[in-house]
Structures are given as structure tokens and as C-alpha cells.
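sorry for the late reply, my laptop died twice this morning and i had to redo everyting from scratch. anyway the thing you sent over, i finally got around to it. pasting the sequence first so we're on the same page, its 228 residues, then the predicted structure underneath. double check i copied it right bc i was rushing
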Amino acid sequence: MNGYILIDKPAGWTSFDVVNKLRFMLAERQKLLPKRLKVGHSGTLDPAATGLLIVLIGEHTKRQAEFMKLDKTYRAEITLGAVSDTDDGEGEIKPVANARKPTKAAVLAALKRQTGRIQQVPPQFSALKLKGKKAYELARAGQTAELKPRTVNVRAVSDIEYHWPRLTFRAEVSSGTYIRSMARDLGQDLGSGGYLSGLRREAIGQFSVSEAVSVDQLNTNNIDQYVA
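ok and here's the structure:
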């Protein structure tokens, strides 16, 4: 079997959890050993995040790089007034003493500075490799990874809502953009601190989460119906 399945990943699941679950379903459906079946995905979503994950099957796993280069659309929630060592709600969260409470005008101006082609430093807790080790492995060992800024493109920010300390917006971004880094940098720019407290991936290229199926809807008897 070759193709892909659009999955609406639930919170608490890793991308590998989803791939592994589908691998066993597909293997049982085809009466194969799971290790005989090639299954991958088009780009990791953090465990706390929800939304679109494209699971690639068979020969489609060879197209992983092609899918990963597609633009992404996210709905993000940022909590201001505190920081996290992972730049999201999964890490150690510390309130910022005497944090500024920025006006909506200040927030909009900061978001504008985060739009377009910008230089962005990836989070310390990321899967980027340095000298053969992933950045998050170094971070967990108490080491600071020397991550260099790279050019990303935040194509558009829309549907902005702000009620201190919560800021939500939709972001259309190029591949390689970290929304956690956007949250961190916005907090620094505003003088309030900030971390990503919610994230949902709504689209990958032309693929929308509205077309996706939840893992709970799949079983051995119907999974092949969802393979495109």
C-alpha cells in the first residue's frame, strides 16, 4: 500500500505515537509484520500541539522531504508575563518580575516586526543536530546548544486577539519556522516575557486539518478507506 493519511493529532501524542499506531493497523490489515511496512510523517508536531500530521505510507515515505518543505498554517496561543525553558508550556515556567503589560498597539507592532523574512534562533529544546547530538539532548544534559539564527518567512499573521496575558493569532509560515521561537521573541520584544501555551496546525501546503481524520476514528477494518 502506498499513499498518505491526513491525521488530526490529539494533544499528548508524539508524532511517532501516531505513526506507530497506524503502522500496526496497516500491517494487520495487510497481514504483514509491522517492521515490513514503511510508515513516516511529513514533519513533527510537539506532543502538546494538535492538528494536521501527514502520515506517509510505502513509497510515499520517499517524498518526505517534499512534504516537509511545504508552508504551514498554525493557530497559536501565547501567554505573556512568564517564560519557559522550553519556550512552551511543557517546560519550567517562571513568572517575569515586574513584567510589562503591553498595550494592544504595542502587541500589534511587535507582531509586525515578526512578519516577513526574519532571522530566528531555534529553541534550545529542538530536534536540530549539533555535532551528532540533538539540541534537546544537550539541553536535558544541562548544556547550552550554540544555535545560529536562520532566515524564515512569516508570510502573514491574522485573526489577532489580545487580552492580557493571552495573545492568540493565526500564522502562515515557511518550513523551518518555530512558533515557539516567535513566542519567545515576542515576549522579549514586549519586555514581558512570553511562551507558547497552545498550538494547532491547521494546514500543510494545500492540505487542511478540516480534511483530516482522528486516530480514534481509525481501525483495522476501515483504515484503507482513508489512504489517499
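Residues 107 and 190 are 7 Å apart (CA to CA).
thats about all i looked at so far, will dig more tmrw
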